[in-house]
Give the backbone structure.
Amino acid sequence: MRPLVMIPGPIEIDDAVVRTLGRPPKSHLDPEFIESFGRALERMREVFQAPKGQPFIVAGSGTLAMEMAVANLIEPGDRAVVADIGYFGARMADILERHGATVTRVTAPAGGVPLASDVTRALDGCKLLAITHVDTSTAVRNDVRALAALGHEHGALVVVDGVCSVGGEELSQEAWGVDVVLTASQKALGAPPGLALVVASERALASWRARKHKVASYYADFASWLPIMQAYEARQPKYFATPAVNLVEALDESLRVLLADGMPKRVEMHRRHAKAFRAAWKALDLTLLPKDAEHTAHTLSAVYYPPGVDAKLVSAVRREGVVIAGGLHPDLGPKYFRVGHMGACPPADVLDAVGAIERALASFGHMPHGIGSAVAAAQAALID
Ligand code: PMP
C-alpha cells in the first residue's frame, strides 16, 4: 500500500490534480493551456487576496520565488531586515546578502518570535522587511499583520515568505499591505512541487521599475516574466522560457479545488486539524518546539522526541504506513520530528497519522496514558 505522506510538503494531492499530470504535455501555445494558465493567475489573486496584485508562475521551487522577490527589489547597498524564526529566515538573509543587501537578522531563541521593538529598531533606514510567515523548521508563525504594519511605518517594502502558509493560514495580502507574497506549489495549495509563485503589489512593481541597476538574475527578472503573465492572462500566448505545462495545469486544478471550498473554510479546516494534532501531542505528553500557542503554526507540528526516543521514530512511523519528517533546525535537528497537516487532508488522514505515531511511540515504550489515548484526543478535537 502507498504510504500516507504527512510531511510539510510535498503533500497528498487531490485525484483531479494527479490526473492532470498524467496527460501528454500540451503545446504552451495550445488554447486549452492558455486558458488554464490565465485562469491559474486569476485564481492566485483570489487565494492571496490581492485583487490588484501581479501574479507570477515560474518553473522552479520556493527558493526561486524567494530569489525572485529579492533580485527584483534589492540593489547593492540597500539595507534589509529579516524577521527570522528559523532555517528559512537564514536562507532569506543569505539570498539578500548575495544580491548586495546589508542584512539585519532579528531573531529569537528557537521556538519564539522576534520582539516587535527589536524589529522596529532594526527597520530604521531599511528598504525591505522580509518575514517568514511560518518557518517549516520550527512550526513557529510570525504575526505578519503586525510586522507588515511596522514595515510600512518605516517605509520598507514588505516581503512575506508564505511557502508554508499560503492556502492554510490566514493571510490577506492587500488588506495587510504586503508587497510581495511568495510561495511554492507543493504545500497548502495542493499541487506537486515545481512551481515558484509570487504575487507583487503595485508598490513592489513601482520600486522594481525605479531601479538604478539591472536585475542581476536573467531568469528571475520581473522584466522577463511580466509580459508573459500579462499575455497569458489576456489569453494570448507569449514565449520567454518554456512553461512547465503539466504543472501549471495541475496548479490551476488545485486552485479550483481550493477555491470551491473558499479561503475562510480552508483556514478553519487547518485550525481544526492543528487543534486535533495538538490534543494528540498533549495526550502523549509531548512538548512542542513553538513556545506559545499564539505563534504555533496550523500547517505543521514540530514536536520534541520524548526521553528514550530518537530520530529512529521517523522510520518506525513509516513502517506503520505514514511518512513524517525529522527536524530541520540547525541546532535542534536531531531532537524533534515534524508532521505536515496542510492541504485538504481529510480528518481520516489526521487520525491515521496520529494512530501511526502512537503505535510507533509505543514500540519505543512510550505510552503514557494507555492505548488509543492520542487517537481519542484527536477524535474528540475533530468532533468538538
Ligand atoms: N520557505 C519556507 C518557509 C519553506 O518551508 C521552504 C521549503 N520547505 C522554502 C522556503 C523553500 O522552498 P523549496 O524547498 O520549494 O525551494
Remarks:
- The longest helix spans residues 263-283.
- The pocket of 4'-deoxy-4'-aminopyridoxal-5'-phosphate is lined by residues 9, 61-63, 66, 88, 132, 135-136, 161, 163-164, 184 (CB under 6 Å).
